[in-house]
UniProtKB/TrEMBL annotation:
Name of this protein: Molybdenum cofactor sulfurase middle domain-containing protein
Molybdenum cofactor sulfurase middle domain sequence ranges: 5-68
Pfam families per record: MOSC_N
Organism per entry: Pseudokineococcus marinus
Segments of this protein annotated with the region Disordered: 131-153
Organismal lineage: Bacteria, Bacillati, Actinomycetota, Actinomycetes, Kineosporiales
Length: 207
């Protein structure tokens, strides 16, 4: 559900359009108008998850919200959910990129000044602490020395990454968010604990 809290998955399938099922629904008011976070700030406190093909929304206490409960929780009369593609929104990723990568602890890393500390990414990397091991193919598995450290992903613009079975190309840094945006070159499955390999390097740029 766009702009709500998502669920933490052990594994996910990355398609050309982004993570399967990610941001595939939007909040609408009684007239069917798509609502953003600024229209319903309480949306950020709700937790959305797919149970089969059905979207289930719960409040912070885990209570399942049906129509009346959703309206009360968001403060929007007649609030409901709808499929994003029925309203011209791009499902599977953010509004600007299929994949938004961010590292654990990025809010304390380089290039974080002026960024919203609340990450909106759909793929989170554990880059540990240390220095970038340099040019050439690199592998980070979440342990050992030579890991690039939190926030290092903001210097990867132009790089091609292998994450699990997927291949991504880092395209740019967000203006107000942590992490980086990426397009999907090769679809595949990603899972917690997967190796992250930088196949090609790139110079940092900001768009």
């Amino acid at each position: 559900l766009f702009r709500s809290r998502g669920e933490e998955l052990e594994r996910a399938h990355v398609t050309v359009g982004g993570l399967a099922g990610d941001r595939g629904h939007v909040l609408v008011d009684g007239d069917g108008r798509v609502l953003r976070g600024r229209d319903a700030p309480a949306l950020a406190g709700l937790v959305a998850a797919l149970e089969g093909d059905r979207l289930v929304v719960r409040d912070a206490d885990g209570l399942r919200l049906e129509a009346e409960g959703l309206a009360a929780a968001t403060g929007v009369p007649g609030a409901g959910t709808a499929r994003a593609d029925d309203h011209g929104a791009a499902p599977g990723g953010s509004a600007v990129a299929p994949v938004h990568l961010v590292s654990v602890g990025a809010e304390a890393g380089p290039g974080a000044e002026g960024c919203d500390p609340d990450p909106r990414a759909n793929v989170v990397l554990d880059l540990g602490a240390g220095t970038d091991p340099g040019a050439g193919p690199e592998t980070w598995t979440g342990e050992g020395e030579g890991r690039p450290g939190p926030g290092a992903e903001r210097g990867w613009v132009g790089a091609v990454l292998a994450v699990g079975g997927a291949r991504l190309v880092v395209t740019r840094t967000p203006k107000r968010c942590l992490g980086v945006y990426a397009d999907v070159l090769v679809a595949g499955e990603v899972a917690v604990g997967d190796v992250v390999r930088r196949l090609e390097g790139g110079a940092p740029t900001t768009a």
